[in-house]
Structure formats: C-alpha cells, structure tokens
Design goal:
Chain lengths: ~675, ~160
C-alpha cells in the first residue's frame, strides 16, 4: 500500500498545528514558560521545513514569517501576551487553511495577520527591534557567512548516510573551510569502523539563508546535532571560529571575507538547534485507524471462534483438547485486552480542542472564563473520543452561554468575576464519567417549567419533581434562551447530545445547585467493540444483557408470580421495581420455565426487572451492529455470535427501561382506581 | 415510463447474468452481480419487533446478517423448509449504504443469461404486487421470470 506523502504531511501538520494551538493557549496563561515557547517554535519550524519539502510553498513562506516574528518571543526580547496569542492563533488557523484548501484563502488575510503579528511583537523602546524583525530571510545585513557545527549520531553510517557527501553539498552553497574534530576517535584497535565519531566545524562563506543549510541536512536532522551561527563581517565569530591549525580546504577567497578585526561580542542573532530525538524516549508508530479497526474485527472473530472451541472442548472428554482450549482462551482474552488498549486514546487529546473554543467564546461573549481540565490521561476508545467531540462542544457552549452569568450579574454575588468551567474525566468501574461543570446560576426549574407548559409538553400545574423538569431540556426543539444568539437558543443541541451519547451506549445526567452552577455527567462504556454480557434464555431464544446494566438477579418465586398477575411490580427489599416479562415482549413459544429469574437492570436512577427463563452465564460479547434494514427494531442494540455459531441479540436496556416505565405509568392509574 | 426503462435497458446490454431462484410458484431472476453466495439453511435467530419480511438474523461467516423472507412482500403463503431451501446472500445498496442480506429461496435453479430484448412490459393489471417491486418481467425457457427490484422490496 502506497502512502501519499502529501497526505502524510497533512496529517503531520494537523497534529503539529494542534500542539501549536495548545502551546499558544497555555502561553496566554504562563507567558514566560520557555518550554511552551520552544514547543510552539518547534512546531512552526517543522511545518515550515516539511511544507517546503512537500511543495507547500505558500505554507512554508507564511510559516517562515510567522516563525521570524515568533523568534523574538523565543529570544525573550518581548513577552507573550493575550493579544499576541490571539493573533498567533489566527495565524495558525491561516496555516491550516493553507494546507487544507489553499484556494479558499486569500494572501491578503495572511499579510494582515503578519502585519498584526509584527505590530504586536515589535519592541517599543529598543531601537534595534525594527532591524531584528526585518531580516525575514534570516540573514543579517552585515553577515558574510555561517559557522556550522555538525555532529552526527555515531551510528549514522549504518543508515547509509555519507557524511562527506553532505559536506560536498554544503560546498555547493559557497566556499567552505572545514575542520574535522577527531577528539572522540579512539585508538585504532578500539575503533569501530562503522561508527562516525568525527565532528566537523564548517565555515561557509555564502549569502544563502539558514534554510538552505538546513535543507542540506534535511534527511539526517533527526540523527545529528546541527548548530548554525551567522558570521558577521566585523569579525565576530570568525576569528575564533577556526583555530590556526584549521585544515582550510576552501579557496583563498575565504580568508578575504574574514578581515582581522577585533572580535566584538555581537549577540548571536540566530542559533538553531535540532535535537528532537532526545525528547521522546518511548518510540511510537503511526498507524492508520482503519488498520486498527480491522485488527479489532479479527480479534472479535477470534474471540467468537475461541468461544466455540471452548464449548466443544467442554462438551467432550478429551483432556488434552480441554487444556489447549483453556490456553487459547487465555491468549485470546489477553490479545483482546491489548488490542483494545491500542485503541485507547487519552481524553487529553480531546480536551485540548476545547481550550480554543472556550478562549474564543469567552472573548466573543465578554465573559471571562477559566477553563480547567481534570483527568486528561483517562483513556477511552478512539472511535468514542471522536464521537464525543460534538456533544462536548454543545455542553461547553451551553455552560458558557447559559450557565455562566455575565460579569455584572456575577458582581452581585459572592462569586469571582471570572467564571469557571471544569471538564473532567474519571473511571468508575467499567465506565468513564465525563463531567462538564460550570459555576453559573444553575438551572431555573421555574423557567423550564413555564416553557414546557407553553409548548404543551406539560399540563399547567401538574406536579413534577425538579429533576423530571430538567429532562425537558433534552426534548427536541426545547430552548429557554430568550434571544437566539449565534451560539445557542435554537433548541437544537441537548436532544442531539442525548441521542449521540445513547448511541455510544452511554447516558447523560443533569444536576444543578441553584446559584452555584450545573453539572452535566456523561457515563460512557470503556469500549464499543466488546462488552461483558449476561447470557440468558427466553423461550428458545438466547439474549445478551450488558453486564454493566445488571444490578442483581433474583428468582421470581411462584408466590411472587401469582401475586404479580395483576400488576407488574416487584418488591425488592422494600423498593417497588416494575418488571417486564420478556417472554411476552418477544412472543416466546413454549412453556415458561418453572423457576423464572428476574434480572434487575438500571439506567441512571430508574430500575427495572427483566423476567427470563434461565440465566446461562457471563459471556464475552463481541458487538455486531444491527443491519440498516433492522433500524426500526428498538428493543435491541446489536447482536453477537455465540459459541455454537448462532446469532444472539443484545438487549437495549435503556429502551426497555423506558418501555417498562411507560407500562408502569399506564398501570398506576388503573391500580389507583 | 416502463417503455423508457425498457429502451434504456436494451441500450445498455441485451444479455444479463442472473441467478434463477424459485419463490413460491414464481421464478425470480436475481442479478448475478448482487449475489455474494448461496448457502444451506442455518439456524436463525428471531428478532422481536422487526417487520414481517425481515423476521430473523443469521450468521454468515462471522457476520450477523438479516434474513429476508421476500415471499411475504409478494403475498405468498409461508412454506416450510424443504431439502431444496437455500439462502441467497446478496449485497445491495440502501440509501447509499452497502447492506448484506440473506434471502430465503425455495429453490435455486441455475446461473444463466437472460435477454433484456424479450422484456415484457410490467402489466399494470392482473398483478397483485406493488409495481415498484418489479424491475421488469422477461422470458426464460418459455416461462415468465420476474426481475425484482431488491432495493425497493427490502426498504
């Protein structure tokens, strides 16, 4: 399979731009953090370099100018501030646009951004500022050449790189004086001829830019330490550059460009170091998501085949086969766990995206907001993370637009003028809880109620708990925003959020403390592909109930059964739990078992019992989604393949709970009557 | 409209590779390109709450595939499984998404070629089926065969 190099660049650039954005946003909070500045600078630099390599000239040119301006911040001449970060973010967006769809961008926009950037980064009271921002090409006016330090990694030769050929390439740029440093080369008998311990100092006389030199080493940059310093006409570095015994291989003209002036301690205007490798000690491999999906499918099939083997082995009496079946079961579950682990991505990758959103919203709405994230290292299935992005955008927007009050209102309370939004993720059992908390005014039950009555969703004056009233927020087309802003108030959102979360087999809960804010909690399963299920039998059909929804299993005693004839409620330790007879629901044939079982399942705070004929046991369930043709089927969320090769349906507990509740509601008045 | 369809059909290609399938007392010609495989009957899993012509699920090479009984769509009586019963697994596109579905066939005859040139106009009368279920009707071995529109039947 041939990978399109341009596509690879796009992917790489997208990631670099993300890390640039993060660094910029962090920078607006801690303007002096050297590491952040360096991260941002490195990202810019790599985009520029690989952009040029893959023919994205516009990107390279723009990024170069961006980088030049940013370099002043890097050198500490000016300090990053909110204005600079805002412009830098705009510049970042422009680079993204240039990469993704150059035709949609206009060079004028780019120039305007650069002008802004230059304006912000100019040092007001330093006369040299203008000139230090001016040399866009990276060449100082009085500069005559470059001093280049080259130190390869010792094993560079093994990769087939010829260091001398690279020196020849440098010579193509202009006359060179090369000094080989043999200090690290050991005695002959200790010398490994396959290592390169020689380092070089090169004095290049040329008016080329630093880019031209970098380009020479483009393919070995990761495997070397390259230092490039300009040599100035008034001597500067040149005098000390090469000791007298330097092996001068350049034509005598080289000497002419270095007049013997007194060495003036000129500040080094540009010093670029490449030492990226030192940063990640743990090496990573970039894999296409489809390949991971394919791997997961294969593992899923393996788990199914293994279940069949186990069933077969246990029904026979061959001990050797049983041993192998057990061994394979162990291997398959290990493989399953590690494959799922590969698909896990830390939530931080998702959280990062929202910082920009909060930054922009807080500016647009003039509500200062502090955005706090907790639990970035909580891991979740990659597909799930991708599908969570949109719902979380909605929730965060809601929190800023509706939740957090304006600064004037906040001033009237004991709260800090700056609002606070916390996005947190944590593990709870086999679930991940993602919460969005704001410290705003909280939900206004009375207003939601009024709106619900106005829309005819609720009879005026009907008794209803606040918690139930909040549920109207999830109703399609329901919005209490008095005015429609660009952000919210259109009434689309919460219902879509709810649907998306439920399609991920998760649930959403709202809680609020009037005057102190609102918390939206998303409960999500760890993975979409495989779940622990409870295998049950109803009639002659077998069904899987997701174990995460199961609270307990009790027997439906004959007495209960008889008593329950008229009403479908069960007394579970004092709580009245409605139950559904799956036999009736699924039109099961044949006689019911004598000892039917009730599986108590829950969704949020509501519980419901499901009556089955038999509980077979727990089952590793590889979820297969139902065909589009069965989109109208509501009681099942998917299917799986059992050990004997037949298909079994997975119950959609959320739907059954709703169904059971509706049934219970309809029976209540009858009972009261 | 039928005339236009016939004309267009004749212009594209006269011959068409089909799988001859017996359903009830009729013979259907399924376009061979749609057919993925023909398998012997396998255990089925009933889907409660599904539409009557999509009553169950089967396992086809590790994939859960709906099993369609299109006899229901044509108002044919239910027939018990016989030694001739087969499942024809076809790949079709529904609203732009690829969908794999198994179809119960009372008998599978052969893979053959039919000619579009012999296409008969779908009669408006004398047919108790919905006209959109039928692409066209043609002749094979002096018998009328129906070329069904599977997308319409299953949707």
């Amino acid at each position: 399979m041939e990978l399109d190099p341009t596509e690879t660049f796009r992917q790489e650039a997208a990631e670099l731009l993300d890390s640039l954005e993060l660094a910029l946003l962090d920078l607006s909070q801690t303007p002096q953090d050297r590491e952040l500045i360096d991260t941002a600078f490195r990202a810019l630099h790599t985009i520029k370099g690989s952009g040029a390599m893959f023919g994205f000239e516009q990107v390279a040119a723009f990024t170069h100018d961006f980088e030049t301006a940013f370099d002043l911040i890097r050198k500490g001449e000016i300090e990053a501030n909110r204005d600079i970060v805002s412009v830098a973010l705009a510049a970042k967006d422009y680079i993204r646009a240039l990469i993704e769809d150059p035709s949609s961008t206009d060079a004028i926009i780019g120039e305007a951004i650069l002008d802004d950037l230059k304006r912000f980064v100019s040092v007001p009271d330093a006369p040299g500022a203008a000139s230090s921002a001016a040399p866009a090409a990276g060449v100082a006016t009085n500069q005559t050449g470059w001093r280049i330090g080259i130190a390869y990694e010792p094993d560079i030769l093994r990769n087939g790189t010829n260091p001398l050929a690279l020196l020849d390439d440098l010579r193509a740029l202009g006359p060179c004086a090369v000094l080989a440093n043999l200090d690290n080369v050991p005695e002959l008998d200790a010398l490994d001829p396959e290592t390169c311990l020689v380092t070089w100092d090169v004095l290049l006389t040329s008016d080329c830019g630093v880019d031209a030199i970098e380009d020479v080493f483009m393919f070995v940059r990761d495997e070397m330490k390259l230092t490039i310093e300009p040599v100035l006409a008034d001597g500067g570095l040149l005098e000390e550059a090469l000791p007298p015994e330097a092996i001068v291989m350049a034509p005598p003209a080289a000497a002419a460009v270095a007049p013997k002036a007194a060495p003036a301690p000129e500040p080094v205007t540009e010093k670029v170091e490449f030492n990226r490798r030192a940063e990640d000690k743990t090496s990573t491999v970039r894999v296409q998501a489809e390949r991971l999906d394919e791997l997961m499918d294969r593992v899923g099939e393996l788990v199914i085949a293994q279940a069949r083997l186990s069933q077969l082995a246990h029904s026979g009496s061959d001990i050797a086969i049983k041993a192998i079946a057990e061994e394979i079961e162990r291997l398959a579950s290990g493989l399953r766990d590690s494959t799922m682990g590969v698909r896990m991505v830390p939530m931080g990758s998702l959280f990062g995206r929202f910082r920009r959103l909060v930054h922009d919203l807080s500016r647009d709405l003039a509500k200062p907001v502090e955005f706090v994230t907790v639990g970035e290292d909580t891991e979740l299935d990659k597909t799930m993370i991708e599908r969570l992005a949109d719902p979380l955008v909605h929730l965060i927007r809601n929190a800023i637009d509706h939740g957090i009050e304006g600064p004037e209102q906040r001033a009237g309370t004991a709260k800090d003028a700056t609002g606070r939004i916390e996005l947190a993720a944590r593990y709870v059992g086999a679930q991940v809880l993602v919460t969005v908390t704001d410290d705003g005014a909280g939900l206004d039950a009375a207003r939601i109620r009024a709106k619900a009555e106005e829309q005819g969703l609720l009879a005026p004056g009907a008794a209803m708990s606040d918690q139930d009233i909040y549920q109207f927020l999830f109703h399609p087309g329901f919005s209490t925003a008095k005015t429609i802003s660009t952000l919210s108030g259109r009434g689309v959102g919460m219902d879509v959020v709810k649907r998306t979360i439920e399609s991920l087999r998760g649930s959403i809960e709202l809680s609020t403390r009037p005057g102190n804010g609102t918390t939206v909690t998303l409960r999500l399963p760890l993975t979409l592909a495989i779940i622990e299920g409870l295998l049950t039998r109803v009639g002659d059909g077998r069904y899987i109930i997701p174990l995460s929804a199961v609270e307990e299993c009790v027997e439906l005693t004959a007495a209960d059964d008889a008593r329950a004839r008229g009403r479908n409620f069960l007394n579970v330790r004092g709580d009245l739990v409605p139950f559904l007879r799956l036999r009736d629901l699924f039109d099961a044939e044949g006689e019911a078992d004598q000892h039917q079982k009730i599986i108590i399942t829950s969704k949020g705070d509501t519980r419901i019992g499901l009556v089955v004929d038999q509980i077979i046991g727990s089952h590793q369930t590889v979820i297969k989604s139902l065909s589009k043709l069965h989109a109208d089927v509501t009681m099942f969320s998917g299917a799986t393949i059992l050990g004997d090769g037949s298909a079994a349906l997975i119950l959609d507990v959320a739907q059954l709970v709703t169904l059971g509740q509706a049934k219970a509601e309809s029976e209540k008045p009858a009972e009261a009557a | 409209m039928d005339a236009i369809q016939t004309q267009a059909g004749a212009a594209v290609a006269d011959a068409m590779q089909v799988v001859m399938v017996g359903l009830g007392s009729e013979i259907f010609a399924l376009e061979a390109g749609l057919v993925r495989e023909i398998i012997d009957p396998v255990p089925t899993t009933k889907v409660a709450g599904a539409r009557a012509f999509l009553p169950s699920l089967i396992n086809v090479r590790g994939n859960v595939v709906p099993l369609a009984d299109i006899r229901v769509r044509f108002g044919m009586p239910h027939r018990p499984e016989t030694a001739d019963t087969r499942i024809v697994v076809i790949d079709i596109e529904i609203d732009g998404d690829p969908v794999t579905v198994g179809i119960i066939a009372d008998k599978v005859y052969e893979v053959t070629e039919i000619s579009r040139a012999q296409t008969q106009q779908t009669p408006r009368l004398g047919m108790h089926w919905k006209p959109e279920f039928v692409h066209f009707i043609t002749k094979w071995n002096d018998e009328f065969v129906i070329v069904p529109n599977m997308e319409q039947i299953l949707n």
